[in-house]
Amino acid sequence: MLKLLCAAGVCLAMATPAGAASAPPPAERTVSAAGVDFHDPDAVRDLYARLRAAADAVCDSYAANSRVTQADVACSSQALAAAVRKLDRPALTAIHDGHAPTRWADSR
């Protein structure tokens, strides 16, 4: 079973105010890629959407401060990129890089 762990502990530490007494434990979400047909563009887009949602959730500090919000966006972007790299699937990488062909030939 192929599972991906979106961990953004380092990014969350960056989003923590400098004066905080202690950093929160690293947040993580598990997104399963089991059963995803990487030849099906819709299935890959769905997986990418789930990865993005997990990265956003892990990195959301729920603060109204615009500086923290920028850190949240950077954290989410980094976590999503790391998840895509870890899965190492051409179809998923193509979506992440902004290329979305209608059909992929994925030899894996």
Structure description:
- With 108 residues, the chain is mainly α.
- The protein has a domain at 3-7 and 33-96.
- Helix content is 51%, strand content 9%.
- The chain has helices at residues 9-15, 41-59, 66-87, 90-96; strands spanning 3-7, 28-32.
- It has a two-stranded antiparallel sheet.
- The protein is elongated.
Largest sheet at a glance?
2 strands, antiparallel
Give the CA-based shape: elongated
Whole-number radius of gyration? 15 Å
Distance between the termini: 14 Å
Enumerate the strands of the largest sheet in spatial order, edge to edge or round the barrel. 1-2
Low-confidence stretches: 1-21
What is the number of helices? 4
Helix and strand element order: EHEHHH
In total, the number of strands is 2
What value does the average pLDDT take?
A: 76
- Strand portion: 5-15%
Structural class: mainly alpha
Q: Topology, please?
A:
Elements: E1 3-7, H1 9-15, E2 28-32, H2 41-59, H3 66-87, H4 90-96
Antiparallel strand pairs: 1-2
Please sum up the structure shown.
This protein has 108 residues and is mainly alpha-helical. The protein contains four helices and two strands.
